[in-house]
Amino acid sequence: MDPVRNPFAPGAGQRPPELAGRDRELDAFEIVLERVARGRPERSLVLTGLRGVGKTVLLGELRSMAVRAGWGAGKIEARPDADLRRPLSAALHRAIRDLAVRHPDGERVAEVLGVLKAFALRSAPADAKLRDRWQPGIDVPVRTGKADSGDIEIDLVELFTEVATLAADLETGVAILIDEMQDLRPDDVSALCAACHELSQSRSPLVVVGAGLPHLPAVLSASKSYSERLFRYARIGQLDRADADFALLAPAEREDATFDVDALDTLYERSGGYPYFVQAYGKAAWDAAPRTPISAADVKMAAPEAEAELAVGFFGSRFERATPAEREYLRAMAELTDGRDEPVGTSGIAEHLERRASSLSPARDSLLKKGLVFSAQRGQIAFTVPHFGRYLLAQA
Ligand SMILES: Nc1ncnc2c1ncn2[C@@H]1O[C@H](COP(=O)(O)OP(=O)(O)O)[C@@H](O)[C@H]1O
Ligand SMILES: [Mg+2]
């Protein structure tokens, strides 16, 4: 069928034509927005799940909800080893601009922007040469004395408090959305938790909404034991059959096309309900089908195309980031799980490779750091990418 009208959207962060099966999370966030804006105590949301389940797009949707509710909102993507100040400054700048258009007191807005600027300028060492200094692009005079101590924990509390008062003036709130939250540096994680704790105690209308890999709750509670009281963890994963069908049917029907029941059976078998795969197979099936309704035969014909796309865009791009030693480790994981998405014991991997466990630690640590594997439990390791083991076995 006409590829131009193909509605499906496989790809990291690509907004799906239909955000299926996420009503629970959307409803929960609606309540967070209402309660926090009214100064009621409420835990914020942290989304966790494997790669490709739709965390980024859901986080984007939560952001849109906040903006529609009149909140100021800004989003960042954490990166390993990167400083939090710069991206956070940019996100808060965005959020303040959202609020500034409605705020009656321009002076006050400029004050808060000035504090934000002081916070941002702290990201360069004070003695950095002028050309190495980062220009945050905030067009007001800097206001020193708040949020610029250099101690990130103190600075975040002061900065968040300032920004939250702007929102409180408007009886609204501020949402900071952090994607790939597991990649924040430990001191930044702990400062963020501390600041959220402080602000929730003073009922300031500012929330941090996170998204990350399944071990993110463990990262947060290792940092601050009270993090469980700050966040509600929402694990997102595969769509059930009805939601996966809806994710395919609703967009197709808007283009006057549909799928046979047999086609939907085959699609669910292939995708396992993983949103990324739903989009990839849906897209290929659309292109392969000569006419509507799309049949099971069309899906089968399209499967190699979808798999080739996934091999490059979803699996291959990750596998390529692994060194030979890391690849050996990943293959051992795949062999031991026989391609199922299950955790394996690290000692079992050493045995399988006939190596001492300590000699494998560097490979394991760097795979953890690259976000290809995660450890939900001590001594256990699993792929962050669904069907990765199956992909590796098919390669061999
Ligand atoms: N609820 C959903 N329904 C249908 N497709 C979805 C849904 N959530 C995500 N997708 C699709 O899945 C893919 C991966 O989404 P993304 O947000 O990048 O996942 P993650 O951030 O968890 O790796 C994208 O192609 C997106 O369009
Ligand atoms: Mg993502």
UniProtKB/TrEMBL annotation:
Residues 1-20 are annotated as: Disordered. Transmembrane segments: none annotated. Residues 168-265 form the Cytochrome c domain. Keywords: Heme, Iron, Metal-binding. InterPro entries: AAA_16, Cyt_c-like_dom, P-loop_NTPase, WH-like_DNA-bd_sf. GO terms for molecular function: electron transfer activity; heme binding; metal ion binding. PANTHER family: ATPASE DOMAIN-CONTAINING PROTEIN, DNA-BINDING PROTEIN-RELATED. This is ATPase. It comes from Pseudonocardia hydrocarbonoxydans.
